[in-house]
């Protein structure tokens, strides 16, 4: 019996499995966290670039000259065409509003409903030489349950914004 205990004391079989079991959870947690953050940053960059790209239609007057009730749909299509790789078009929220001056845009924080969605205040792309505030929002679903308490700011989602404030060009 005594030799059996000596054998167990010297036996190193399974040591690697125990070390892996101790280290595997933090490594897996970090790996999923890195992937989640990479997707979040990519989605945020895509949303920002989609807002900037679509706002060019308003800046140059292309949207205003199109006229009719299809302006909002044209703007949505411009945002969606750019962002459709990662962001479902139906979940993109936007606000386009002509404001008196650049400083007034600073005093207009976005408003949210109880579900965390941005309130739509209408669609007004303005006219020539108007200052226009454009906000595009998306509630990114945090996919990794362990990362939700860290990354989510409303339930299991993270609200992402892109804001553009600009003066339209004289396009007539």
Give a short summary of the structure.
By secondary structure, this protein is α+β, with helices and mostly antiparallel strands.
Strand content: 15-25%
Total of DSSP H or I helical runs spanning 4+ residues: 6
Strand runs, count:
3
The helicity comes to 40-55%
Order of helices and strands: HHHHEHEHE
Query: What spatial order of strands do you see in the largest sheet?
Result: 1-2-3
- Describe the main β-sheet briefly: 3 strands, antiparallel
Tell me the radius of gyration. 25 Å
Q: How widely separated are the two ends? A: 99 Å
Helix/sheet category: alpha+beta
Outline the low-pLDDT stretches.
Answer: none
How would you describe the shape?
elongated
- Mean pLDDT score: 87
Question: What features would you describe in this structure?
Answer:
The chain has 172 residues and is an alpha+beta fold. 47% of the residues lie in helices and 17% in strands. The protein has helices at 2-10, 15-59, 62-66, 71-83, 102-106, 148-151, and strands spanning 92-99, 131-141, 157-167. A three-stranded antiparallel β-sheet has the order 1-2-3. Helix 2 (15-59) packs antiparallel against helix 4. It is elongated.
Descriptors:
6 helices; elongated; 3-stranded antiparallel beta sheet; 47% helix; single chain; alpha+beta; 172 residues; 3 strands
Chart the SSEs and their pairings.
Elements: H1 2-10, H2 15-59, H3 62-66, H4 71-83, E1 92-99, H5 102-106, E2 131-141, H6 148-151, E3 157-167
Antiparallel strand pairs: 1-2, 2-3
Helix pairs in contact: 2-4
């Amino acid at each position: 019996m005594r030799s059996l205990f000596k054998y167990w004391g010297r036996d190193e079989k399974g040591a690697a499995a125990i070390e892996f079991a101790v280290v595997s959870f933090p490594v897996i947690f970090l790996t999923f966290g890195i992937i989640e953050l990479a997707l979040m940053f990519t989605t945020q960059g895509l949303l920002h670039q989609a807002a900037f790209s679509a706002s060019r239609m308003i800046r140059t007057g292309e949207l205003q000259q199109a006229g009719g009730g299809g302006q909002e749909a044209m703007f949505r299509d411009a945002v969606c065409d750019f962002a459709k790789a990662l962001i479902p078009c139906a979940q993109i929220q936007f606000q386009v509003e002509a404001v008196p001056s650049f400083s007034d845009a600073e005093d207009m924080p976005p408003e949210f409903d109880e579900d965390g969605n941005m309130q739509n205040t209408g669609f007004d792309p303005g006219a020539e030489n108007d200052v226009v505030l454009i906000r595009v929002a998306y509630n990114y679903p945090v996919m990794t349950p362990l990362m939700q308490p860290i990354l989510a700011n409303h339930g299991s989602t993270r609200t992402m914004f892109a804001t553009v404030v600009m003066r339209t060009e004289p396009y007539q």
